[in-house]
Recover the amino acids of this structure.
């Protein structure tokens, strides 16, 4: 009888962010669907009410079904029989509940069977699902791939595939190969065009999440003799046609319910999605950005679970005659956990809103030319989304790992035993800072927004707003952090040495992250006092972190780089 | 083949989350202090109905509940999960109904609905725990009853196959349509609310709920499927003498809080004589009868 949405009022607070009005009105095109679909909203309030009600269903399924099955799924996991993946019993039940509840294809348009939800409430559902079972989030969250089909495939493919996803069929994105992990340009899976124009795929893919899905997006080399990313195209493989077998699934440390497959393609028929040669340089980049936001949501969901487990245990566990939460050392850990959780969640939803606006404009641009103002706005939000996505994924996943570590610490020796949920959270968390681009690669994606000033402009604008008296202290610290950050960036760039900038990139991105998250928490706290405490704790924490980095940078001499070189 | 299915459902106080103020001084239930919920076994019943609808496309699931206008919430909950229609049977004349008067009123409404193949209800409601209403409805409509159902397997060629939970295991029975089935809590849990149905039906209401809300009234006029039937005694041609308190032979003398404890155990042989002796004994000491 648990509801993971209603028991966490902070979620609704994020959902009610003022920018949602713009998002919903754009997404619903003046609510024109209300005439055509009996489940389309009549106006803004109606749409928001629907998001709220549907998230309540998500919360209920997560509390009553998915969280309940999580332990068993973690223990049994999926298996391979006759080259096919068989999910754990709990996974089957989870999927069935999500299908019955109509939670597949949430962001797809109604004409293709979707709910036409903006990304923001969809990401909120991902956050909630991840709190219940991060491994299951992978299977459910792969509905993201439909987004790529919607953006780049032709109308006929959209009709045929997206409708199936909305009815509950699962997806996978088959990118990685044994010799192509972070470096996807080296993908070798071979796509051959036959005389009749159709394509077949041959080769091997590795580490494919949910690799036995119904509908695959496959990155393959369509241009014979090429070696780089420009020879790669995107294909859709339909499991109904056969040709792809699961050779084995990996035995992983965490997210054990999610099958990670090695796939063998043998003359597997496939359809080209979009244009040839744009597979990596355009479509995978879009796919990855969506997936990264998904992992940011997964990280926040696991963080939430870790914080709650730790809090409950600390209230319950008595030592020296009192609950351990009464000891300052324990209370501090919990406060910082909560601050990191709230900060990364504020960043997640800020990012989701930015993605929403630019994607909706992209979609509208297919129907009519955008006005000059709209184009400018779309461009600005696209840039913000591009800047915030690696930050949300990178920082969010690191915080998630830190929170699950601290969750075990609060549990003491018991936390090291298999008996408590915290050990699963700790294992599940570990992948979040690795897949869909490691934290190090998020830094690579984020650094140009450090050097070009995207973060700084955002921070300055945020700190320009008037704040209430009670937040004046936090605001002052944030002003200092912003100055410190600006100076550090200038320090690094002044050296004009690429290796040096690369070396300092992580520090600068983290400083940007702490300051941005502080600003976002300040904004949330201005709207809702539930964030006051986290704002205070986070700004203190972030300032100390920024000072550490600033000191390191200002004390570092270029020639010292040699000590860090192999 | 498609079926007309009626689900009997009841809005009940959530006795699973009982607080200190759950009972009034006089020993009756303080309904105001308890959240009103869909009776749990009626949800199991609804799931069986929806599975039949999945199995026999074109089937129609109608939810029937008796209660005040706010019991329309039960109908909405059913619509969110895939039911097609609902009726709230609501009249002051029904107030104070015991199981006999309830089953009378429900059977009158079912006759009014007409054209039914299967009537499915939960085994019992968590507020009264009698398990009488389902079988009584069957009796009044002259239909066979299958109780303690765990799964309605199929409904082909005018017969249903039902697995029912009995003390020693599961019994599979066949019965002719139309009939009444009461479903046990051990049956499959009800499916979740569906996001599309939820958005489609969230403004569904009985007329008295929206009497003062012109905006909603207008919307319901435009979208007739949002109108939930609200039927009174006269509409279902009910004989007022058999309704409510007047039609309820059950009289509550007093209510005591009883904690069941086993004092002694006796083993009864599995023979007709032994059972008869036990019944006689129980009647003699007023345990039953």
């Amino acid at each position: 009888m648990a509801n993971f949405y209603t028991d966490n009022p902070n979620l609704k607070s994020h959902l009610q962010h003022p920018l949602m009005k713009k998002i919903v009105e754009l997404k619903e095109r003046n609510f024109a669907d209300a005439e055509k679909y009996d489940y389309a909203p009549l106006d803004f309030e109606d749409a928001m009410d629907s998001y709220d009600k549907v998230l309540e269903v998500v919360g209920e399924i997560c509390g009553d079904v998915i969280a309940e099955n999580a332990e068993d799924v973690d223990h049994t996991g999926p298996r391979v029989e006759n080259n096919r993946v068989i999910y754990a019993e709990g996974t089957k039940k989870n999927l069935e509940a999500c299908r019955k509840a109509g939670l597949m294809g949430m962001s797809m348009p109604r004409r293709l069977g979707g709910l036409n939800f903006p990304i923001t409430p969809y990401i909120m559902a991902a956050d909630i699902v991840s709190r219940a079972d991060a491994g299951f989030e992978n299977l459910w969250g792969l509905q993201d791939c439909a987004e790529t089909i919607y953006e780049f495939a032709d109308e006929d493919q959209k009709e045929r595939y997206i409708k199936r996803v909305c009815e509950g069929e699962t997806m996978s994105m088959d990118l990685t190969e044994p010799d192509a992990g972070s470096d996807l340009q080296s993908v070798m899976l071979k796509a051959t065009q036959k005389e009749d124009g159709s394509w077949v795929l041959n080769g091997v893919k590795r580490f494919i999440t949910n690799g036995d899905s119904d509908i695959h997006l496959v990155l393959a080399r369509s241009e014979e003799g090429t070696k780089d990313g420009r020879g790669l195209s995107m294909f859709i493989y339909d499991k109904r046609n056969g040709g792809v077998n699961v050779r084995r699934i990996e035995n992983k440390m965490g997210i054990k319910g999610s099958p990670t497959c090695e796939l063998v393609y043998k003359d597997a028929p496939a359809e080209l999605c979009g244009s040839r040669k744009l597979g990596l340089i355009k479509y995978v980049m879009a796919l990855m950005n969506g997936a990264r936001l998904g992992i940011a949501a997964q990280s926040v969901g696991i963080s939430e679970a870790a914080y709650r487990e730790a809090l409950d245990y600390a209230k319950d566990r008595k030592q020296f005659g009192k609950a351990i939460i009464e000891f300052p050392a324990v209370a501090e850990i919990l406060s910082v956990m909560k601050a990191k959780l709230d900060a990364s969640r504020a960043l997640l939803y800020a990012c989701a809103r930015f993605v929403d606006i630019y994607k909706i404009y992209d979609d509208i641009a297919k129907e009519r030319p955008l006005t000059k103002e709209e184009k400018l706005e779309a461009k600005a939000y696209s840039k913000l989304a591009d800047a915030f996505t690696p930050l949300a994924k990178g920082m969010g996943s690191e915080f998630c790992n830190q929170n699950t570590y601290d969750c075990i610490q609060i549990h003491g020796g018991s936390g090291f035993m298999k008996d408590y949920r915290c050990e699963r959270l700790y294992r599940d968390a570990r992948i979040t800072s690795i897949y869909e681009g490691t934290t190090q690669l998020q830094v690579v994606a984020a650094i140009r927004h450090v050097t070009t000033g995207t973060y700084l402009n955002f921070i300055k604008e945020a700190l320009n707003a008037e704040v209430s008296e009670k937040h004046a202290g936090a605001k002052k610290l944030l002003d200092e952090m912003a100055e410190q950050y600006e100076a550090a960036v200038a320090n690094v760039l002044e050296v004009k040495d690429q290796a040096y900038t690369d070396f300092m990139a992580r520090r600068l991105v983290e400083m940007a992250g702490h300051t941005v998250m502080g600003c976002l928490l300040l904004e949330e706290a201005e709207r809702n006092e539930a964030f006051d405490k986290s704002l205070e704790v986070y700004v203190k924490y972030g300032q100390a972190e920024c000072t550490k980095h600033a000191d390191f940078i200002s004390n570092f001499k270029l020639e010292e780089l040699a000590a860090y070189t192999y | 083949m498609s079926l007309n299915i009626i689900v009997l459902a009841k809005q009940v106080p959530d006795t699973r989350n009982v607080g200190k103020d759950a009972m009034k001084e006089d020993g009756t239930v303080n309904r105001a202090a308890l959240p009103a919920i869909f009776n749990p076994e009626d949800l199991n019943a609804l799931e069986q109905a929806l599975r039949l609808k999945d199995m026999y496309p074109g089937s129609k699931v109608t939810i029937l509940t008796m209660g005040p206008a706010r019991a329309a919430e039960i109908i909405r909950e059913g619509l969110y999960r895939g039911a097609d229609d609902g009726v709230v049977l609501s009249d002051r004349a029904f107030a104070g109904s015991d199981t006999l008067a309830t089953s009378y009123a429900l059977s009158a409404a079912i006759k009014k609905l007409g054209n039914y193949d299967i009537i499915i209800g939960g085994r019992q409601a968590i507020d009264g725990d009698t398990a009488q209403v389902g079988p009584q409805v069957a009796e009044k409509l002259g239909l066979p009853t299958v109780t303690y159902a765990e799964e309605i397997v199929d409904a082909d060629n005018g017969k249903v196959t039902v697995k029912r939970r009995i003390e020693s295991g599961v019994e599979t029975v066949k019965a002719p349509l139309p009939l009444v089935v009461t479903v046990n809590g051990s049956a499959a849990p009800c499916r979740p609310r569906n996001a599309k149905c939820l958005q489609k039906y969230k403004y569904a209401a009985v007329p008295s709920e929206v009497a003062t809300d012109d905006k909603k009234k207008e919307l319901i006029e435009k979208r007739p499927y949002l109108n939930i039937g609200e039927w009174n005694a006269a509409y279902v041609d009910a004989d007022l003498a058999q309704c409510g308190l007047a039609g309820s032979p059950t009289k509550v003398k007093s209510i005591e809080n009883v904690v069941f404890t086993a004092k002694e155990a006796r083993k009864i042989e599995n023979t007709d004589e032994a059972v008869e002796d036990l019944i006689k004994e129980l009647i003699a000491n007023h345990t039953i009868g």
